[in-house]
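Please predict the structure of the following assembly.
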Amino acid sequence: MPPIPAIQDLSITLAHYLGLAGTIFAIGTVIALSKRNAVAVLMGIELMLNAVNLTVLAFSRFGAGFDRTGSAPLDGHVFVVFVLTVAAAEAAVALAMAVLVYRRRETIDLDRVNLMRW
Amino acid sequence: MTFFDHVHAIGPALVCYAGAGAILSADLFHGRRAAIWGIAVLAAVGALGWTMAQAILGAEDGALSGAVRVDAFSIYLAFLIGAVLLAVVLAAREWAATIEQAAEFYALLLVSAGSMILLAQADDLITIFVALETTSISQFILAGVTRNDRSSEAGLKYLLTGAVAAAILLYGFAFLFGMAGTTSLEGIAAWVATGPEAQRLPLMLAFVLVAVGLGFKMAMAPSHAWAPDVYEGAPTLVATFLSVASKAAGFAVALRLFYTGLGGGDTIISQDWGMMFGALAAISMIVGNTGALVQTNAKRLLGYSSIAQAGNIAVGLAAVAVGSTNGPSGVLFFLGTYAATNIGAFVVVSFVTERLGSEQIEDFAGLIKRSPVAAVVLSLCLVSLTGIPPTAGFIAKVYIFNSAVQAGERWLVALVALAVLNTAISAFYYLRWVRTMLLDEPKDTTPIRAPGGTQFVLAAATVGVLFFGLDPSPLLHAAQDAAAALL
């Protein structure tokens, strides 16, 4: 009987997190740049920001820099809290603006919000 | 460090925020328009005064746990942004009296300017991000402040592009943070100085993302597309503020981040980021100038012109990267002269288009017979934007191009050649506009008068453009001192 192969190391590493975050960021970018509905664009932007948060948190858990510099290891967490706060403020303003445009035009389709071009 | 040392470091920004709070409270209790305007002027003067105090008394290093840094560089930019804020508030008096949202306009202007001053002081990725977003979000609302069709469309477009740019910038920050293991710029500089050859590729990815994100603030390619739409749709005085202050703040952060953080001339990565800015400069100049050639709307033309000018300044950034000694001061000097020039141009366009009821350049015909002051000031500013002596724009362009050529790199010389060619193209559309104003016959000869506050701003801008064109040394010395503080 052939020997049973040793179970490979299944632990999740930095690379897994970065790969996942990179994929989410790419999906978010594509949504933000291709959707015609302003609210859908906003959803894409939220995905991009969440990918950033995931990247920062993964780095502060696994990153190489942390044992070296001796800086406060909470830097990354603080960063994420600020990103969340700012994203919320941005979304609030964006939705208000979308409502404003909708009231005046009865559409938030970005292809039809085009008084100004070229 | 005492509590007051911390307050002193961020004083100019605090004055702006306090002014914004006071304006909103005054509006809540139905304060008079004149009182609200008065608070805005006071806050702008207060911010300038506090910056003056910082320049005279100095400020201790490491305020707010090293999040901000007050040095000659931040003081130079705080003066610049404070002066722009004051000019816009003074020029806005008559216009703001006609809109319903005057208090919000002044309050957001102050919040935005205060955050820009903070941005010039920021010494940490988190501070940079928060200050940048506070400026941006207030500007999104400012662009849509009059709530008409064009203004609200400008606001929405500005916001969506701005949010995408911010997310891209943040992704770059995440990688910088992850590799260097710290958010402080000194920490990043120390890490880059160790020469991490293995991380060169991710580092390049990170700074490309950062440059694309910051390029949004400077209206630099490839994130420039919002500029013409927003300049056209937003109220003209808001566009004035965006074009001058936002660009200055963007380039200030770029200098801090790239020059202090990634190093100029001697690190493993400096040539790479220099070439990137060289490429972005070339694209911006070509896109801006070819776009401007076909414009018939005055504000839209200034929007494309702003993209082209961002390209000129980025030539300076490319020079900084290869270790040109005059590169950083060239960028700062250009920003100073550009502020005077563009404020002059935009403020004239602001009140003239309002009186004309049209933003078409052909309706500026014979402006010299209707309003000699407006026509002369606008012509002078357009000549300065082209870069023809004896104006400040000429000195700034020569200085920045010279610093690039002296750096001694082949590709930089080619870039400067392209920039000179682009200057020739830009002369075509700038001077065509001047000819329309000075030589064509007006359709209607009723005189146009500049309102009181506007006259003062125009006089100041004219003096700036001519004085720094004839004797650039005071501003140049200030810019050189500021640049020296960066290292």
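Chain A touches chain B through 49 residues (CB under 8 Å). Chain A has a mean pLDDT of 85.
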